[in-house]
Amino acid sequence: MAAPSTGLQASSKTRVCFTLRVRPDRMDEYRERHAAVWPEMLRALADTGWSNYSLFLGDDGLLVGYLETDDFDAARAGMARREVNARWQAEMAPFFEGTDGANADDAFNVLTEVFNLETQLAATTAEGGAE
Question: With 50 as the cut, is the pLDDT of residue 5 above it?
Fold first, then answer.
């Protein structure tokens, strides 16, 4: 009989967090567009390995994205090959500041993860340091 799971196993997926900045005069429309993303775009993201993908928008226009994937470079490359992504990126480009007209996918400011609760708990448990 297998030992019960502690629920503390480290994920095999890579966690990715990135930032962009939405123009203040376009924030309401940006929210509206993301309340009803095209079904074809949703399927493309899922099919190319973007999972647990969320966007968070601050009142100052700071956009924070989070996703989990097996391979971020492959997930981005997969989306780059999708016609629906080219259309979506073209429509979204005017919403962003500081991208010099580049697609948002190419202008991500990817952040470095410095802490993850589950990873450290799993390591502590594996080392016998659980209390």
Answer: no
